[in-house]
Each structure stands twice: as structure tokens, then as C-alpha cells.
């Protein structure tokens, strides 16, 4: 069929089902009750390269219609069209120009809008009758300044989609893949956000407000490697969200603001979040190795959170739960029976974790760290520190300076990282009490030689040598008989035997 010219015509009830209308023009035409859906044999209507610019569609069925370009026809043009109660479900709209279209009750479910131009499109509606964009593919589509109020994107593919300056009010973003999408300057409020991927997406300076879920639900969102500097979450639920790196790319949350926002269970491992503000629930959140310099964590609830290796230089945490920060002076800080994170910073600090699985970070200065009960992590930092793991299986790092690690009978199985043997500056010391005999044996692992200190029977070379209960493992350190004189202190009642 040759291309047809319906420009400026009034089409009512026309049946184009299964026809080939490639290259036709409907410029400024009015289409009411027109059919472009497949015919009875299932043949899809072809509308490649058609010109629907400035046309008006009312009650049109274009389900599965093909608008995409091919070797002979370019992209379809629907720019400035008005679409009311139009079904474009499953339509192939790749590369279509849909800029400035104005829609009402639109159905684009499962449509393919890859690389389509939807700049300033109106795909908005009311929450009672949401624009249906479920399962649609907007990969590389341009939704710059589009109005997406109440649109339902459930299951949509939004990879590298441009949402800059778009209105996302009361929009549903559930089960979407928005990897690499750009949300800068978008208006993000009352959105339903759940089970979605925003890895590598750009939320720089975006404010997300009133993002709520039903009680007990987890947001299950992934923001790995996303650009989120000066991002603001206000009254939002981002529980369980993943802000950990995407490959080697860390998530940038510099200057981000989590105001009255629930980030419990969220993973902030390695985030770059200098100056971040958190004042809400962060129960069980993971800040391992995060850059939290100059952060304001006051009033945050960090119960059961993890701050191992986090950089909290210049940070404040007034009235925070689960996190206590010292200052440049000599601090004496005791934790609780639960999991504590205690940072001493400079000065000669006394940090006492008491019960629970604690993290104690001495920082600069000659500090004394007492883990207490539980499986604690102690990091002395610079200075000549005294580290006592206490009961439980502890992980102890002396850091720079000549540190002393004290172990008493009943202190569990501890792992010591970075222990320095010998007599030089910065050598570390071990002190044992309440253990009559210790068998010392080295074990070669894939990561180097470890030294085990095990309960011994005081008899050298017998069959049971080195099989007693492990007391301590020096990870990556080969501790020899010669080190008794240089690296054991205050252990007068213990005999050391070597294999
Ligand atoms: Ca201090
Ligand atoms: Ca220290």
C-alpha cells in the first residue's frame, strides 16, 4: 500500500488493523475510535515513519502497532499530539519523536520506547487512574522535563533514561531497572520506591521527600556507584538500600542529607560521604570503611550499626545511639551491654566496650582499649596502645606504634593483625596471664604465615603438640623462639614451646 495522506482529516471509526501505513501522514488529523491494533490473523499494523505531529487521538487502539524505523523509513513523529484514552500497549515506539505530547489515560504498558524523545511530554494522571507505563522499556529515552505525575512504572526498564527536570510526584517506581538514569533537578515527592536498581544513576542535588512504605517493608533499593552528592532524603524510607561500590566506583554521598529518614539495614560500605547528615533510624546499617569526615550524625540511631574502618574525622554524633565519638583530648568512654562503636581520636583515651560485639577505634595517642565480652574489633591506631580483647573472639589491630596485646585465660580465640616482631621501633608485645603452657606453631596459608598460640601441656615434641585450644592467631606474622625475649612481656607464669 502506498503511503496515505490523512493530514488535517477527521477520522472516525476507521479500521487500519494489520495494514501497512508506513510513511503515511496524519499531520493535524483527528482520530476517534480508530483501530491500529493487530488484525484477526495477528498481523501488526505498520506505522513506520508516519507523521502524527499535532494530531488528536481519542479512544484509539494502537496496541502492538509498529512505529519504529527500518531501512526505508525513519522514526515516527508524534510530537505535539494529544492522546486521550489511547492504548499503545506493546507498541514499538523506538526512536519515536513524542516530544510535547499531551496524554490522558495513556496505556504504554510493555511498549518499547528505546531512544524515544519524550521531552516535555505529559504522561501524568491521578492516582486513581494512573498512566500505565508498566513494563515499558525507556532505555536511553529522553524524558527531560516530562510530567510523570502518578505514572506507574512498575517493572519498567529505565536504563540510562534522562529524567532531568521531570516531575515524579506520586509516581510508582517498583521493580524498575534505572541503572545509569539521570534524575538531576527532577521533582521527586510522594514516590513509591521499592525493589529497584539505581546503580550508577545521577541523583546529584535531588530531593526525595515523603517516600514511604507499609510498616515492616524493606525498600530493597540499589544505589551502587550512584552520583548522589548533596542528595536529600526527607521523610523517606530507604531501609536495606545498597550504597556499596559498583565495581571500583564508590557511591558519592558527599554532603547528602538523610533527614528523618529510615536507613536501617542500609549498606554504606566505602561510600564517599564527607559532610553527610543523618538524624534518623540507621539500625544495623553498615558503614564499613566509609568516608564520613565532618559528618553530622547527631541524634541518629546507630544501634547494631557497623563503623569498622570508617573515617569520622571532624564528625559529630551528639545524642546518637550506638556511636560515641571522643575528641582531641584524653577521653574515657564506656559503652553499653550492646554493640558499641567508640572512637577516641587524638589524646590518650580509655575506651571500654563492655558487653556486645563492639568496635573500638583508638586513633592517635597512647590508648587503652578494653573490648569486654562479645566478639569485638579493636583498632589502636597510632601511638603505643594497650589492647585487651576480653571474653569472646576478638579481632585486634595495634596499628602504628609499639602496642601491647593482653590475653588472659578465658579470653576466647583472638586474631591479631599487623603484629610486628623484633626489637625495632614499633615492635609489638604480647602478654599472657593464667595459662601455664602455650604451644606456638606456624601455619602457612594462601595469604602468608600465621602463628598460632594454643593451650599446651608443657611437654615439648609429644604427639599432641600444637593441637590444644587456639588462644590467639597472629595473622601474617611468623613468631619464632627468638621473639620470646623481644615480644613477650609480663608473662612470668607461662612456658612457651615451639614445634
Ligand atoms: Ca581522644
Ligand atoms: Ca592509638
UniProtKB/TrEMBL annotation:
PROSITE patterns: HEMOLYSIN_CALCIUM. Keywords: Repeat. InterPro entries: 5peptide_repeat, Hemolysin-typ_Ca-bd_CS, Hemolysn_Ca-bd, Serralysin-like_metalloprot_C. This is Pentapeptide repeat-containing protein.
Amino acid at each position: 500500500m502506498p503511503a496515505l495522506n490523512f493530514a488535517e482529516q477527521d477520522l472516525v471509526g476507521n479500521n487500519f488493523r494489520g495494514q501497512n501505513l508506513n510513511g503515511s501522514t496524519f499531520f493535524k488529523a483527528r482520530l476517534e475510535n480508530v483501530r491500529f491494533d493487530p488484525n484477526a490473523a495477528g498481523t501488526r499494523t505498520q506505522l513506520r515513519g508516519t507523521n502524527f505531529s499535532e494530531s488528536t487521538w481519542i479512544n484509539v487502539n494502537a496496541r502492538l502497532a509498529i512505529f519504529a524505523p527500518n531501512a526505508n523509513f525513519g522514526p515516527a513523529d508524534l510530537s505535539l499530539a494529544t492522546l486521550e484514552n489511547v492504548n499503545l500497549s506493546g507498541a514499538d515506539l523506538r526512536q519515536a519523536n513524542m516530544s510535547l505530547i499531551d496524554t490522558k489515560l495513556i496505556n504504554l504498558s510493555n511498549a518499547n520506547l528505546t531512544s524515544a524523545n519524550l521531552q516535555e511530554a505529559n504522561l501524568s494522571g491521578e492516582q486513581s487512574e494512573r498512566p500505565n507505563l508498566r513494563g515499558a522499556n525507556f532505555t536511553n529515552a529522553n524524558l527531560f522535563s516530562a510530567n510523570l505525575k502518578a505514572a506507574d512504572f512498575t517493572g519498567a526498564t529505565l536504563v540510562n533514561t534522562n529524567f532531568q527536570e521531570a516531575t515524579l510526584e506520586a509516581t510508582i517506581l517498583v521493580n524498575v531497572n534505572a541503572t545509569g538514569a539521570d534524575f538531576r533537578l527532577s521533582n521527586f515527592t510522594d514516590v513509591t520506591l521499592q525493589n529497584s536498581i539505581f546503580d550508577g544513576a545521577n541523583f546529584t542535588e535531588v530531593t526525595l521527600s515523603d517516600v514511604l512504605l507499609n510498616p515492616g517493608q524493606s525498600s530493597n533499593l540499589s544505589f551502587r556507584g550512584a552520583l548522589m552528592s548533596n542528595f536529600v532524603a526527607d521523610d523517606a524510607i530507604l531501609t536495606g538500600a545498597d550504597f556499596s561500590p559498583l565495581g571500583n566506583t564508590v557511591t558519592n554521598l558527599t554532603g547528602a542529607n538523610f533527614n528523618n529518614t529510615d536507613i536501617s539495614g542500609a549498606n554504606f560500605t566505602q561510600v564517599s560521604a564527607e559532610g553527610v547528615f543523618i538524624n534518623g533510624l540507621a539500625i544495623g546499617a553498615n558503614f564499613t570503611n566509609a568516608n564520613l569526615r565532618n559528618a553530622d550524625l547527631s541524634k541518629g540511631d546507630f544501634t547494631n550499626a557497623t563503623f569498622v574502618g570508617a573515617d569520622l574525622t571532624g564528625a559529630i554524633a551528639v545524642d546518637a545511639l550506638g556511636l560515641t565519638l571522643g575528641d582531641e583530648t584524653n577521653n574515657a568512654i564506656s559503652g553499653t551491654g550492646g554493640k558499641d562503636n567508640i572512637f577516641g581520636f587524638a589524646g590518650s583515651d580509655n575506651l571500654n566496650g563492655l558487653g556486645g560485639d563492639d568496635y573500638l577505634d583508638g586513633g592517635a595517642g597512647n590508648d587503652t582499649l578494653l573490648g569486654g565480652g562479645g566478639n569485638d574489633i579493636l583498632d589502636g591506631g597510632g601511638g603505643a596502645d594497650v589492647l585487651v580483647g576480653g571474653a569472646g573472639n576478638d579481632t585486634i589491630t595495634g596499628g602504628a606504634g609499639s602496642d601491647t596485646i593482653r590475653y588472659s585465660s578465658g579470653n576466647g580465640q583472638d586474631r591479631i593483625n599487623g603484629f610486628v616482631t623484633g626489637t625495632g621501633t614499633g615492635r609489638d608485645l604480647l602478654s599472657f596471664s593464667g595459662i601455664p603452657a602455650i604451644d606456638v606453631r606456624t601455619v602457612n596459608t594462601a595469604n602468608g604465615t600465621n602463628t598460632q598460640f594454643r593451650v599446651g601441656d608443657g611437654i615439648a615434641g609429644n604427639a599432641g603438640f600444637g593441637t590444644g585450644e587456639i588462644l590467639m592467631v597472629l595473622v601474617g606474622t611468623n613468631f619464632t623462639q627468638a621473639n620470646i625475649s623481644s615480644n613477650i612481656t609480663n608473662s612470668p607464669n607461662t612456658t612457651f614451646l615451639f614445634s
